[in-house]
Write a structure and sequence with these properties.
By secondary structure, this protein is of the alpha/beta class. It contains 9 helices and 9 strands. The radius of gyration is 19 Å and the shape is globular. Strand 3, helix 3 and strand 4 form a beta-alpha-beta unit. It binds pantoate. The site of pantoate (PAF) has 10 residues, from strand 2 and helix 6.
């Protein structure tokens, strides 16, 4: 497995690969890899010849007071896991390489970035779209794979790719969960044993909401209220609960054929997100 840190070196390598007719699959990450990331590598392996993973903790997507400094990092462990999962090249630039003095550009997607995580983390998605746009220009992949745990992120990236006519296919891969239902996240590392136990309320509340919808519940507000009742309290603070249209992210009063249920909470100081996409009439 190759490790590349310079933008020009990465661009030269990509140019060679493309000239040789190789199809490039790309997994953008912030490192501290877990099974969720590795599932994205496997997803890409089935669709591309060469797998490039970026590992870059992007300062531009963290707000003041967020966990940029303490975000977990372990490059040596990441290299072993990435290689074992089938990564061919890691692109791991420094912050100075990505954002040199004089950097002035922001790529911004409107409207769908103002709700849910975008409302609680102003500027976060501008940081994500700007870094992804740069990474796409540097790596020039044919496909890029994102995890559905960050549903809103995936939708924002898809919108940017479509609006800016990027010649790139975005794949969204399923959420990978621990055996007890907790969605995998690098931030799970922050949780104490007690907090981890409490964090299980997230996935449990989503499963219960799905069961209620399958039994016929169609009132968006009733679903929100049931989730709130299930997860609030005992050290868990709700950031948002959204019962929304999966394409516009607007709240739905009456649940139709497709609905996104998304939650963000603080367990102690750790912010966790989870979601479920429900088709109410599968097969119709
Ligand atoms: O999902 C992430 O890890 C990050 O938001 C991404 C897409 C790598 C951009 O920094």
């Amino acid at each position: 497995m190759e490790i590349i840190t310079g933008i020009t070196s990465m661009q030269n390598r990509t140019r060679e690969l493309r000239a040789a007719g190789r199809r490039i699959g790309f997994i953008p990450t912030m490192g501290y890899l877990h099974e969720g990331h590795l599932s994205l590598v496997r997803e890409a392996r089935g669709r591309a010849d060469v797998i490039i993973m970026s590992i870059f903790v992007n300062p531009a997507q963290f707000g003041p007071g967020e966990d940029f400094e303490r975000y977990p990092r372990d490059m040596e462990r990441d290299k072993i896991l990435a290689e074992a999962a089938g990564t061919d090249i890691i692109f791991a630039p420094s912050a100075e390489e990505m954002y040199p003095r004089g950097f002035l550009t922001t790529v911004s997607v409107d409207r769908i970035t103002r709700v849910m995580c975008g409302k609680s983390r102003p500027g976060h998605f501008d940081g994500v779209t700007t870094v992804c746009m740069k990474l796409f220009q540097i790596v020039r992949p044919h496909i890029a794979v994102f995890g559905r745990k960050d549903y809103q992120q995936s939708l924002v990236i898809r919108t940017m790719v479509k609006d800016l006519d990027l010649d790139l296919e975005i794949i969204t891969a399923p959420i990978v969960r621990e055996a007890d239902g907790l969605a995998m996240s690098s931030r799970n590392k922050y949780l104490s044993a007690d907090e981890r136990e409490r964090a299980l309320r997230l996935s449990a509340s989503l499963r219960e909401a799905e069961a209620a919808i399958r039994r016929g519940e169609r009132r968006g507000e009733a679903v929100v209220a049931a989730i709130r009742k299930r997860i609030e309290g005992h050290g868990v603070t709700i950031d948002y609960i959204a019962v929304s249209d999966p394409l516009t992210l607007e709240p739905v009063a009456v649940i139709g054929d497709h609905v996104l249920i998304a939650v963000a909470v603080y367990v102690g100081k750790t912010r966790l997100i989870d979601n479920l996409l429900i088709e109410t009439n599968p097969g119709e």
